[in-house]
Every structure is written in C-alpha cells, then in structure tokens.
Amino acid sequence: MQQKQRCAWVSDDPIYIHYHDKEWGVPIHDDRHLFEFLNLEGAQAGLSWITVLKKRDNYRELFEHFDPLKISKYTPKKIEKILQNPGIIRNRLKVESVIINAKAYLNLLDEWDSFNQYIWHFVNNQPIQNHWDQKKKVPTKTIISDQMSKDLKKKGFKFVGSTICYAFMQAVGMVNDHTTDCFRYDEIRKMHSKKTKKF
C-alpha cells in the first residue's frame, strides 16, 4: 500500500499525523473552538506545535473547554493552581493571557454577533485557497494576519502576534496552506469551494 503524501512539516508521530489528516485547514465556525485555537497557538509561541498538541486535552480540562465566561472569572488562586499542573506549559504570562483573552473576547461581543463573525471577516467570510508547491514558499505571516494581530491587540488580546495569527488562520481553515503535493490539498480545496456559511 502506497504511503500518503503529506505536508513536509508532518513528523511520523501518530498525534501529528492525525491532526494533519483530520483537522489542519478544515474551516471552523464554532466560537469556543476558535477561541481555543487562538489560545493554544499563543501557548505555542517559541515552542513546537506538537508540544502543545500533546497537552491539548490537559488544557481543555484545566480551562473548562475554553469557556470564556468561566475563564474570565478565574481568581489569582485559580491561576496559581493551574500553574502547578505539569500537564500544560507552565508559563505564567501565557496562562494569564488566557484569562485576559477571555475578558477581551466577552467585550468583543458588544461589537460583534459572534467571535466567528469577527474572526472570519478578515477574509471576507471566505477561505483563502493557496497553491504552494513547496514548504519553503508557505509564509509565516501575511498582510491579513498583520491586520488581525493589530486589531486583536487593540481589543486587549495577548499573545496574538502576526505569526501566531497566521498559524491560527492555517489551523482553522481560513487559508489552505497544504502544499499541492499533499493528499489533503484537494480535499480542503473542495471544502473551500462549497458555499460559505452565512453569518
């Protein structure tokens, strides 16, 4: 049986393979799921994505499946308890940023009907279909991720630099950055060609 051709960044780790084959680049429109990814991408800053991926279940448990309302009420005592858990990346600034982001998220809903509507407006509610034939051609940030980063920071979000925002866009399907030789490229392209959900 011929092995599937995948993006060059995928290792032989089963967790990474499953993530690439089933999740990466699939358009997400669920508010809480989008909020989760934004924070996990922030946790990844300076580290590899596989490190965060292996700890994702622990993050979900500790942060109550990334419920912004619940997280926004976390006390300093709660934060200290979270920081003692070896199941996550125990960086105080990153942990505290989740609480800060939850509050910023709730404030954002005073302007927008949903987090989904806000996030997807940066690409005019339509996934960007790229055509990269080599990993080295895939950008680490773009004008759009610059705009998203600037606006998120203005709204009070933390750990949302342009590179983090672009990785987030790739993860939640706002762009298709599977290389053209990857078996998922066409599968994601077909998802992108479907009529976009109206907000």
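Second entry:
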Amino acid sequence: MMLPLVPQNAFGLEGGLLTALVIGFVFGFALERAGFGNARKLAAQFYFYDMTVFKVMFTAIITAMSGLFALAAWGMVDLSLVWINPTFLGPQLVGGFLLGAGFLISGLCPGTGFVSLASGKTDAFFALLGVFLGTLLFALALEAVPAFNAFYTAPGSGTVLLHDLLHVPAPWLALGVVLMALGCFVGAEKLERVFERKLDIDPASGRERSRVDDKRGKYILAGGLAVLCIAAGLTGGAPAPSPALAAVIQPLEAGTLAEALIRREAGWLMLDLRAPAERELIKLPGAQPVDKVSEVPAALLEAPEGTRVLLIGTAGLKPGVPAGWPSGRDYLWLSGGAEAWQARVLTPAMAGGTALEERERVARQNQIAAYFNGAEVAVSAAAPPPPPAGGGGGAKKKKAGGGC
C-alpha cells in the first residue's frame, strides 16, 4: 500500500487519531529536548548568538523534503494525498510578519508555547493567553471590519510548489536546498561566534551560552541527504505531483449524499457538470450548474479552504478536476452520476424479503424518496421520518491558524 496510510484509512478513524497522538507526543518531546521550551533560547536566534532554533528547524525541513520527494519519485508515496497549505500570498506575508513579531517579543510561538507550558514555564502561560486573546480579536475583526474580511477571504493561488514553478524534478530541487542549507549552517555558526563575542556572554548576564559547536554532524547530514536526492533523481520517475496537478477524487454514494442533505450538513458545494438537457431530466437539490469547465466557477473561488466539492456527472463517467481549478478543496464525485441519484434516492424501493432489516431498509429509502420528490409510499414505524432538510451547500469558514 502506498503512503500516506492515514488518508487511505489504513488504520481506521481510531488508528488515525492514535497515530496523531503518538506523533504529537514525540514531536513535543523532541522540541523540549532541543531547548525549544526555553523562551530565552528561542529569542536568542533573533540576536544571532544562538542559532539552534534555525538549525533544528532547517534540519527538519530538508530531511522531510528529501525523504518525501525521494519516496514519491520511487512511487512509494502519493503526494496528492499529502496536505500542503494553499498559497494566499498577501495574508500569509502579513500573518508571517505578525507571528515573527510576537515570537520576538514573547520568545515563544504557539507550538513551543505549549511545550514550554508543559515543562512548567510561567511565562508560557501569558504568551498563550496572548495567543487566545489575539485569536478572539481576529475573529471579531472578521465580522466587524468588511475590508479585513475581504482581505482574509480573498481567493488564493492554489497549492504552488517551487519545483512546479521552476519545472525541475523534485529530487534535484531538494538537492539544491540541501546544499543551500549546509551553507546556511556554516554561516550561522560564524554568526554565533561573532555575536557571542560582541555580547560578551557570561553567567551573570541573564543570557545563556547554550549553543553546541558542531564539527562534522552538518556535513554528515547534508552528505547523506545529497546521496538520497541524487539516487532518487537518477533512478526515480517523473517529478513528484502536487495536489494542484493531481487532485484525489473520492466517490460518494447517492444515499450518503441524501442523508447529508437531510441533516443539513454545512461545508458542501455541489457542481453539476452535465449538459443543460441532462440537468433538466434529473435535478439534484442545491446543485449549481457549470456550463464551462474551462472557467473556474465563482462559487468555487469563493468557497473557503476545506469545502467539500461534489462533482456531478453522468453514469459510468468519473469526472476529474478540470485544469486550473483550485486545490485546497475536498473534491468528491457522485458515484454512478445523476442516474444513481434517480435510482437510489428518488425511486421508492421494493422489498426483497421479509426480514426486519430488509423492511427497515426499504422503509428508510421510501421515506427519503418521499422527502425529495413527494412520492406516495408506505412509512414503517421502525424507521423514523427524516428531519426537515435544506437545499445543499453551505460552506465552512476558512480556518484561522498558523505558526508552528
């Protein structure tokens, strides 16, 4: 089975949650052992006398990048199943600046703040209190200031990856980043020595001489990753696909869609890709017609990140995500097309036996059929009627978050 396993539901819901818990614990432990629970050590990178934070984070980036692109080149990882943040250049620039300013002032970011709090640091409590208050003010500003809301919800550029922009195979781009990182490590250590002397660090100064002089580790790491990237570049396949180029479309059964509409589930956007004549024959409540798939529908551009977009086609055809449509959406397709909706939702069922489960199944489908088209069907007391439903596709607001 290809990786990642969790999006493919290899472990089930409980296994996926347990995996996230284990990874989160190991990640937090690694941060604490690297000194990331100490605000003074974290802030020291801004004064250039201890660049541990920079070196640790850059090491994690190049290790993950090289391994991921190498496995993708060898066909062992499907990158279209890996979540990558879409690009919202303006909001991300402003958010990055504010996060950096808060990091410099408090010495902590949200992730390291929880690590610091778990290790008993009092200042972490006040830093995280500021995070929660800032999040509250952010949410209030979204509602109160239309210009701010428009800036935050402006359409993004989809998932933009550097190797796609440069048209360079991903393993070779990763090799370049690894070599750049090695140069940055050497330069960072020179900066540490220069600014440590300028600050004249001593035990009474309140600053810590916590950096570790590394002689060979950076060369061993960079060399190993360089060999991995070169091997992947020479023996691997095509450049690793990005979600913008290879979106995964999961099937959705007609009955599942009907139940979701009855429950008035939010976060749905249904787009009907069929010809106008076909749309008139079988109508789906809440579905928005798309006449030109070459143009991105306005509703899709306005839909926030995480919206479940259901593509509706005809039976026997699995619609694909048209080129140019944004990523960052959970694309699905109606299994069996509109014909499946006609057969499994709008058409009353006939009992295939006298067993209780079969009678309940038939009664439930008949209730659903009566709900959507007003058919005259018998209703069994064993299956309660569905609650009133809306027409289909509200959308969740874009998640506020970020930082480390």
